[in-house]
Structure formats: structure tokens, C-alpha cells
Design goal:
Radius of gyration: 17 Å
CATH architecture of the domain at 1-77: Orthogonal Bundle
Shape: globular
Number of strands: 0
Structural class: mainly alpha
Order of helices and strands: HHHHHHH
Strand content: under 5%
CATH topology of the domain at 1-77: Rna Polymerase Sigma Factor, Chain: A
Distance between the termini: 55 Å
Helix content: over 70%
Amino acid sequence: MKNGTVEDLLIDEAKLVFKYLLKMGATKEDAEDIVQDTLYKTIKNIDSINENMVRSWLFKVAINNYYNLYRKMKTMVHLTSEELEMIKPSSNSTEEVYLNEQNKKDLMVALNELKPAYKNLLILKYFMDLSYKEIASILETSEQNVKVYLYRARNTFKHIWEGKHDE
């Protein structure tokens, strides 16, 4: 890696990992700790990391740290609307802001009902805007598998979403 760009690359990627962890349900403090630990491990092993694989390596380490942290706590993690402040409201009227907040809550309830693998895929694709190739690299699988599992995740989410709105 070129020394002049390593720091900038790591900072940019760390911001992305931080946002991902928040969307996964980590608290802000836990996400900061996980990112810090991930960056430490990255810097420690920087010579053995392929330059093209930095993003996937960071995500892999952060995801493992996240699961280890919450496995120790043995608690179910649910996302709150405060953690989704990254989503911009589309208007300023009070009624529309309330409806947007309610939709966010409904969205998170539906997402939390999915199995973790499907939830992860949907977050990586639609909240983080990663490509199929990037997701495949992070999850160490083929692009075709990512497409198939995303299809299944979307269908399962759609079923849950429609079930909640048919009531």
C-alpha cells in the first residue's frame, strides 16, 4: 500500500463500517469500540492485507467483533429510530415527519423479524449501498449466491411487511 493514502483509506472505510454497525443494532459506544479495535487489528496486520481486500477485511473483522460482543451479552439487539437518523426525512411538515418516523419504526420491526443473515444482506445492499461484488467479497461467497440470498431476503421481508400492513 502507498503510505500517503493508507490513513485516508482506513478513515473512509472505518466510517462505512461504523455506519454498518449502527444499522446492525450496535450502540454508538459499542460501534466506536468495535471500529477502534478493528482499526488496531488492521494497522497491526497491514503488511499481510491485500490492498484490494481492505474493505472486506475491515467488515469481516468488525462483524466478528460485533457478534462476539453481543454473544457475550446474550441479548437480542433491536434497532431504534434514533440509530437510523442517517436516513433523511423527505419533508418538513409535522404530519409527514411523524409518518416517516412511524415507517422507520415499522421497517426496523420487520427487519428485526428476519433471520440475521437476511437482515445483514438487506442492510449491506440497501442501507450501505454496496454492490453485489463488494457484498460477495465481505461474505466470502460468490456474487450469484449474494443475488439468490438477497432475492430470498427481499421476499421474506415483503411477506413480513405485508403481514404487518394487512392487519
